[in-house]
Write a structure and sequence with these properties.
With 397 residues, the protein is an alpha/beta fold. 38% of the residues lie in helices and 18% in strands. It contains 14 helices and 14 strands. The strands form two sheets. Strands 3-2-1-4-5-6-7 form a seven-stranded parallel sheet, sandwiched between helices. Helix 2 links the parallel strand 2 and strand 3. Helix 1 runs parallel beside helix 2 and helix 10 runs parallel beside helix 11. The longest helix is centred in the first third of the chain and has 16 residues. The protein is globular.
Length: 397
């Protein structure tokens, strides 16, 4: 174990399924358990981009002195049974459990096994806002983009486990519940401790970044989750990039390869697949002086991670006309709330994403951009771009 961490205090077991969850566990440990080593269990997903980011984040966790246990939790039909069986001893021996996604069926099942009296929920993006509201209102745990739909057979079958998990995540009977979040909390449940994630570990370990000329854009998985129409999304990205002089598009880890290829060809943007969560990529730099985003977690987290720099985060609202016919009835209100509650961001009207001739916002003078090799080398990214002239050829057709 690294000298950064020790074994003092209660044994803490953390479960993560995404790079952002792992980052926020490191932030929680830095803020609330400095010098205490924890056992971090990665319930690995199957998609390559997420796995790659989790591998990189696991290395950072080991550097901090934490023990990392990698579980191929979805490596076949028997994998869940093998994973849960192998973790039962750890679960029953842990005094504190930290988790990143209370909506995860995997995590809900694990919660039925643990005897821990201290439970900590760290951010899993904007879903944390919905979780807190549902917990406060005593509702069943349902992801926001699925709410309003009819429960499927699997939902009905799993309902008892989900209800048990919600009870475990409610204070009482000697249980202490903490929510560690950078998201705004309007409906904090009674008896739950809420503490702020200010990204102090990220700022202490990385940066400040070098700023480049122009703007960078942050991708979203709203198309992949069935909320936003793919054609409308591509049109909005193209218009925003033209209006603000964006050159790079940082892909969300869940964005499909086909969609990203279309974006590269039809917009001319360089598509960057980050090898770490965007908060770390931006903090390490180089990064654009302006970061463009649609409603997502980063409109809350990037201003915190980039505190003290001159980077401006601008968020474009989602026009109701962009939503698919299958989008949850709550989608528009939830996305508007994500944007409206964000601090230290510049808000853009959806009209800015439908008129590519609109003049860009005036920007202060920029330093010279880095050489083409710098962004990938220092930010830890992989990228691809459209062939020269491809964007113009598609637009002309």
């Amino acid at each position: 174990m690294s000298p950064r961490a020790g074994n003092a205090g209660p044994h803490t077991l953390a479960f993560v399924e995404s790079p952002v969850q792992l980052l926020n566990v490191l932030e929680w440990a830095h803020a609330h358990a400095p010098g205490v080593g924890l056992t971090l269990v990665v319930l690995s997903p199957v998609d390559p981009m997420t796995r790659g980011q989790l591998r990189r984040m696991s290395d950072l966790a080991r550097d901090e002195g934490h023990e990392v246990r990698w579980e191929e939790a979805r490596g076949g039909p028997l994998a869940p049974f093998q994973t849960i069986g192998g973790l039962t001893g750890l679960l029953r021996g842990a005094s504190r459990v930290v988790l990143g996604d209370p909506f995860s069926r995997y995590v809900q099942l694990l919660l039925t096994i643990t005897r821990a009296r201290d439970l900590v929920v760290v951010d899993d993006g904007t879903a944390t806002m919905e979780f807190v509201g549902q917990l406060a209102r005593g509702e069943r745990l349902v992801r926001w983009h699925r709410k309003g739909g009819r429960p499927g057979p699997r939902d009905v079958l799993f309902a008892p486990v989900s209800a048990s998990a919600r009870r475990r995540l409610s204070p009482g009977d000697g249980r202490r519940i903490e929510i560690f979040s950078s998201m705004p909390m309007e409906e904090a449940p009674t008896g739950v401790t809420v503490s702020a994630n200010a990204f102090a570990w990220t700022r202490a370990r990385f940066g400040p970044p070098r700023l480049t000329k122009g703007a960078d854009m942050v991708g979203t998985s709203l198309v992949e989750t069935g909320v936003v129409d793919d054609g409308r999304y591509l049109e909005a990205v193209r218009a925003l990039a033209a209006a603000h002089g964006a050159t790079r598009y940082f892909a969300h880890r869940r964005e499909s390869t086909d969609k990203l290829h279309r974006l590269a060809v039809e917009t001319g943007l360089e598509i960057v697949r980050p090898e770490l969560p965007l908060e770390l990529i931006a903090r390490r730099g180089p990064i654009g002086r302006t970061i463009l985003s649609f409603p997502s977690t980063v409109v809350h987290t990037l201003p915190l991670a980039l505190s003290g720099t001159q980077v401006r985060v601008a968020v474009c609202d989602i026009d109701p006309a962009w939503l698919t016919e299958n989008a949850s009835p709550r989608a528009q209100g939830f996305l508007s709330g994500v944007t409206g509650t964000a601090r230290d961001v510049h808000r853009l009207s959806p009209a800015a994403a439908t008129d590519p001739t609109a003049p860009p916002h005036p920007e202060p003078p920029h330093p010279e951009p880095p050489s083409p090799a710098d962004p990938a080398e220092s930010a830890g990214t992989a990228s691809f771009a459209a062939p020269p002239g491809a964007a113009g050829a598609v637009a002309a057709g």
